[in-house]
Write a structure and sequence with these properties.
By secondary structure, the protein is α/β, with parallel strands linked by helices. The protein folds into three domains: 7-45, no CATH class; 74-170 and 313-338, 3-Layer(aba) Sandwich (Rossmann fold); 173-311, Response regulator (Rossmann fold). It is built from twelve helices and eleven strands. The strands form three sheets. The chain has a six-stranded parallel beta sheet, with helices on one face. A three-stranded parallel beta sheet has the order 6-7-8. It has a two-stranded antiparallel ribbon with strand order 9-11. The relative contact order is 0.12. Keywords: DNA-binding, Repressor, Transcription, Transcription regulation. It comes from Paenibacillus albidus. It holds the Pfam family LacI. This is LacI family transcriptional regulator.
């Protein structure tokens, strides 16, 4: 039987004191952020968080009731990236709608928190009054560590942490993007180019993997991994457009423009369309553009955007179902739930010109 991973073992592994490890894992002050991150990473690598009852507080919670009192039974919905992940978002808002409907059907309440600082989050967290947590989008390891530390069941949507284990819900990004890329190649496109920062989120990276796999399997194209379009900043707020237009100008001068641009999401695709039009590039006559997510603006774009429909409300409902299942069976194996997504064909794609 494997020996239990203790704080002392983590301390010995890093060459620090047990006091430093304890402070780091408890979320208390007195340890700088760099040291705290090293401790969390070492704890994860040694298996500290995956062992049963590892640094979990014993909190008594109300059992889930079929017709519970909403004032007494609630689920925390954590959306810390308040700049883009809000209820008003065409993407994240639909996911929250799915969560709210599923909770309402169960007679449960919902408390939305957008706090992104771990110390403030600890102060507002009242675990005894919560059944569990649904995390939406990007959430820092330090916040998830606090949730794990108090033993609050959690499910993450569109995000997974490399250090803190949890159930997760994603759209099937890899397969969906692979099908979209194969569709474009089936129409005759060989000069496909992916637009999206693969460091921005796990979903963006998975979509790039699906794109890359389709091209490599086709034998037609060998995509590079040092492409500047894969690491460009500002894709979450559209500020990448000037740099993108410079890239387009260089490509046009060198006569190396792609025939299709495969964007990591609809917001990027819409910004790309605007930038291409400003450069005098016609869509889809000269270049095809695709998105991902099927937000409402995709159908209103000019031309309407070919994209992948992500069933956002279904992701929210699936997260609630998984959370309630996790509460009932806390020792069950963790799951990564993939929701199928389908291509929506619109006018931003056409066969390439000869």
């Amino acid at each position: 039987m494997a020996k239990k991973v203790t704080m002392q073992k983590i301390a010995d592994h890093l060459g620090v004191s047990k006091f430093v490890v304890s402070k780091s894992l408890s979320g208390k002050g007195g340890v700088n952020e760099t040291t705290r991150e090293r401790v969390i990473q070492a704890a994860s690598q040694l298996g500290y968080f995956t062992q049963k009852n590892a640094y979990v507080q014993s909190i008594q919670r109300l059992p889930v009731a079929a017709n519970g009192n909403r004032n007494k039974q609630s689920v925390l919905v954590l959306m810390p990236n308040i700049r883009s992940q809000t209820q008003d978002s065409l993407y994240w808002g639909k996911i929250v709608d799915g969560i709210a409907l599923a909770l309402d059907n169960e007679g449960l309440g919902m408390v939305i928190v957008s706090e992104h600082r771990a110390d403030n989050f600890v102060n507002i967290l009242n675990p005894s009054g919560l059944l569990g947590l649904v995390g939406v989008g990007q959430i820092s390891t330090s916040l998830l560590l606090e949730v794990h530390r108090i033993g609050l069941p959690m499910v993450l949507i569109d995000h997974e942490d490399p250090l803190i284990p949890s159930d997760t819900v994603f759209a099937n990004n890899v397969d969906s993007m692979s099908r979209l890329s194969n569709h474009l190649m089936g129409m005759g496109h060989e000069g496909l180019h992916f637009i999206g920062n693969i460091r921005f989120s796990r979903s963006f990276r998975d979509r790039w993997i699906g794109f890359r796999s389709a091209l490599e399997e086709s034998g037609k194209v060998s995509p590079v991994t040092d492409d500047e379009m894969l690491l460009m900043d500002g894709m979450d707020d559209g500020s990448f457009r000037d740099e993108f237009k410079q890239w387009v100008a260089k490509r046009r001068k060198a006569k190396t423009m792609p025939t299709a641009m495969v964007c990591a999401n609809d917001a990027i695709a819409i910004a790309v369309c605007h930038a291409l039009k400003e450069e005098g590039v016609r869509i889809p006559e000269e270049i095809s553009v695709t998105g991902f997510d099927n937000i409402e603006d995709a159908s209103r774009s000019v031309p309407p955007l070919t994209t992948v429909h992500v069933p956002k409300e279904a992701m929210g409902r699936a997260a609630v179902e998984k959370l309630l299942s996790r509460i009932q069976s806390p020792a069950a194996p963790l799951e990564k739930i993939l929701i199928a997504a389908d291509i929506v064909h619109r006018d931003s794609v056409a066969e390439p010109q000869n």
